[in-house]
């Protein structure tokens, strides 16, 4: 039997990389997407990626498309900030026009974390901006094996995050401590991505802040070069905890710098009070290729 030939695009956002497929035509099931992620995300035996993105036809009124995301281990990812920006650029390249806005277009899309929007400029090398509808559940937490003198908090920015404030992010044992925190019983059953955050410049109402962050990602089960929801979580948690004083934060990650913006009156408060949350950064095409899938490899795609 001939294999199913599936076109894909490899994309990355600040080093956070993805396999992207146009699922409007392939119609892969959730089980298929999970298997594709497990098979092709490994870096030595597959294409290599932190996760797999699928562009689906819109399911809700007013949406331009639906985003489906699977982590490298095949598990569901409710939201991926860098992935969402990459998928929005992919959608524009695939002919989805969105609504003209300035020198680009605004696209509305649904995800497992809710309705989002992105602004994609006409310039293919310019940065893409993701508009984030909400954050929630900010609170200080105490976890086993973490020195109580090292403040840690939890926050939801499309997926679960545990933010640990540190003096020097570069010196942290992200692989070891990150894995322990990610699996801590207090964060069960969903677990959490773990962000190690160093404040470089607290900024002010008139000047942006700058922080450094490294993230251990669940589903990848390792540190990634960047994490979009982690950048947002790190910036918002730093502001809510009174560690920065700006509503615009440059987040330096190993793969590059992402810019987080938000409106939040006062220094400390609730994540639910944050408005106009944005994530800006690169969304680059690396290469295009095809996958040759045999029938035994997948649970069954309706398009075959």
End-to-end C-alpha gap: 12 Å
Report the strand count.
Answer: 18
* Strand and helix order: EEHHEEHEEEEEEEHEEEHEEEE
At CATH level 2, the architecture of the largest domain is Roll
Class inferred from helices and paired strands: alpha+beta
Whole-number total of structural domains: 2
On the 0-100 scale, what is the average pLDDT? 94
Report the β-strand fraction as a percent range: 35-45%
Principal-axis shape equals: globular
Radius of gyration: 19 Å
CATH superfamily of the largest domain: Diaminopimelate Epimerase, Chain A, domain 1
Helix content: 10-25%
Describe the main β-sheet briefly: 18 strands, mixed
Low-confidence stretches: none
CATH class of the largest domain: Alpha Beta
Predict the CATH topology of the largest domain.
Answer: Diaminopimelate Epimerase, Chain A, domain 1
How many individual helices? Answer: 5
Mind explaining what this structure looks like?
The structure is a single chain. The protein has five helices and 18 strands. Helix 4 links the parallel strand 11 and strand 12 (193-201). The mean pLDDT is 94. Helices cover 16% and strands 40% of the residues. The protein folds into two domains: 4-127 and 284-297, Diaminopimelate Epimerase, Chain A, domain 1 (Roll), CATH 3.10.310.10; 136-281, Diaminopimelate Epimerase, Chain A, domain 1. The protein has an 18-stranded mixed β-sheet that branches.
